[in-house]
Amino acid sequence: MKSDRILFQSDIFTFKLNHLIIIGVLILAFSISMSIRSQPLDYGYELNEFDPFFNFRATEYIIENGFSEYFQWHDNKSWYPEGRNVSATSQIMLHSTAAITYQLFGGNSSLYDYTIMFPAIIGSLTVIVIFALVRLLGGNLAGMIASLLFAVSLPIILRGTAGWFKSEPLGIFYGILGLYLFLSAIKSKNQKITILKIVFASIVMAFGMASWGGNQFFIIPVGLFILALPFVNKDHKFLLWGVPLFVGLFLLISSLFERPGPNFVFGLGGISLMIPTVFLIICIIIQKVSSEKNKIRNGLFFLFSIFILASFFLALSSQFDLSNEKLDENFIPLPSFRYLNALNPFLTNSDPLVDSVGEHAPVSTNLSFLLHSIWMIFAGLGIWLLFSKKISQNENYVKNDMKLFVLIIGISGAYVSSAFIRLEIFASITLIILSSIGLSLLTKEIFKISFSNKKNYLIKILYSIIIISFFTTPLVYPEQGNWINVVDEPPIIFTGASMYPPTNDWLETMEWIKVNTPENAKIAAWWDYGYWITALSERTTFVDNATLSTNEIQKMATVLMSPPEESWKMLKEMNADYVLVFVAAQDIGNNSENEPLYVVGGGGDESKVFWISKVGGFPAEKYLELDVKTPKPNFYENTLLGKLIPFSPVVYYQPSTEKNSPVYKNGFIEISVKNIKYNSDNDPLKLVYASPSFMNDNDGELLFVVLYEVNKNYNLSYNPLN
Length: 722
Fold this sequence. Notes:
Layout: E1 6-9, E2 14-16, H1 17-37, H2 51-65, H3 67-70, E3 74-75, E4 84-85, H4 92-105, H5 111-138, H6 140-152, H7 154-158, H8 167-187, H9 191-211, H10 216-232, H11 236-256, H12 261-265, H13 268-289, H14 295-317, H15 337-343, H16 352-355, H17 365-372, H18 375-386, H19 389-392, H20 400-416, H21 424-448, H22 453-476, H23 492-495, H24 505-516, E5 522-524, H25 530-537, E6 540-541, H26 550-561, H27 564-574, E7 578-590, E8 596-600, H28 609-616, H29 633-638, H30 640-644, E9 647-654, E10 659-661, E11 669-674, E12 685-690, H31 692-695, E13 700-710
Parallel strand pairs: 5-6, 5-7
Antiparallel strand pairs: 1-2, 3-4, 7-8, 7-13, 9-10, 9-11, 12-13
GO molecular function: metal ion binding; oligosaccharyl transferase activity
Enzyme class: transferase
Pfam families: STT3 (PF02516), STT3-PglB_core (PF21436)
């Protein structure tokens, strides 16, 4: 059956069999993507992670108050006492796009339910956009393969499931669409259509920047591609007006948003586009006035000079204080530390606050293979086939400029994603592009080979089975760790990001706070929980996941790790009313006196002592044993966090030998009993609420939240501990 067979036609369009196949594949890819991304809904219809709760709150503000009020909104419930300028510190286009599409397509659903489904829908729609981009680069077959690979990509799905109302799904959608429009404009022969594509590419790319700061990494391959265009694209007349128009409009529109804003335009991101654009213009002029023999050499010499100058100015701009990220105003404004870390992997482990975030952990080879599997091999195959002379004679071969772009985005994506786990998204996108093009070229070559009829049929069937097996194996194997069931997890609001089964403790705690505390109450907690408290309990917090001031997070760490009396003074100075602590533990049965015993640990604040102490500037070895997870008696006795955790160790136990020890020994596990240390009006703080799981004495895991009220009238001289 021929794919170009005409099914029906009209005066303006001819519908062929290959169009039907493409539509079918895209529907399949969309359906697969939606089914995988929707798995968290089996546990409950809730937002996932932390940031989505703030994003919902900001979107709700637009719906209820309008855009003009949104851009003037100073949120006094965040970052107390300064508050937060929301439009200047948020992903504006995420909130705007969600608000507009909700009003258009939300129907009778609640905004909360709509924002839960929004990332899954946008992420699934991106299979169409990635198809368009890769089709432009490598043809229909490559595009269809790319759409299917995108639908099951683990790094992309992990940050785009139902409930993940964060910036990545929409940012990737805008970023890939912008790349497609820009590259399509370069390939287009119709000037009117080209202008429209350039304008829309600029707008969409700017929208992507205002949706997700990570879209800055799409700028890297674009800038490098612009540097290469004078050497690989012969249409210099178009380049002289098309590229400056794209870059100029993109930077102009980006500057209109408060974030990224002028700092991006006149900083490293904007300059990484301005310099290549200026180079392109001058290089074309140099080539025009040079002889045919020397024009490439002269252009390359000029390019080398640009690299030398750019490296010099970048080195000057890198002189800044990593501890507070204050930039030297005499040089180029640089992006935040985490973006610099992606560009310079040697900065890894130099900022404890950045290192304390799980998604900023470095990427190991084993983890890379888990995330990308066989794609890594086919991506390498794709690069080899792109530069194969035999394949280059194929009429379907990728053109020179697009071939170079594929290589550039492949190398740049692999480079920036090596810094930390979160950026594996970019590795996945580049591997999808490379492996889909490589697989399509290989498939075309295999299917061109002619054998006897029966042998020809069997070889092609066998090849298809092998390829399908390669790409589906990560989806089903291993049984408990494949790409599908890895995302089959409950929303974090049910688990607190712990390793234990889901409970409703966080939701019930937030409701209790909302009903039983004053509306102007200010709650101190580790920054992980700030968004939950402001969005669900509608109370004021000091730090959250987006707090810009490192000093404020360090102050909160200092409060938690200081002696209780000093912490009480700081809490009073901060005007804090309550302190919230999240604890994970496991009930392991009763002792001979029928007293319940517990192993404390599993992902609550008790498991964050190492990072909280490092962020606060305290030596972790002062509070933790040699295993860097078991708290020392000094932690329980002389830190506020230790006092707020309602357990006390009674013995240390070694399971293999069944021996007990009154003091910690290597290989022993801390066994604790419940002990509420602050439960009196004479204490610096008093327990006012413990979530239901804490009250249960049944065997099993405990995930619970405790809330302490700050005793503003506490008398230090009365303290019986002194």
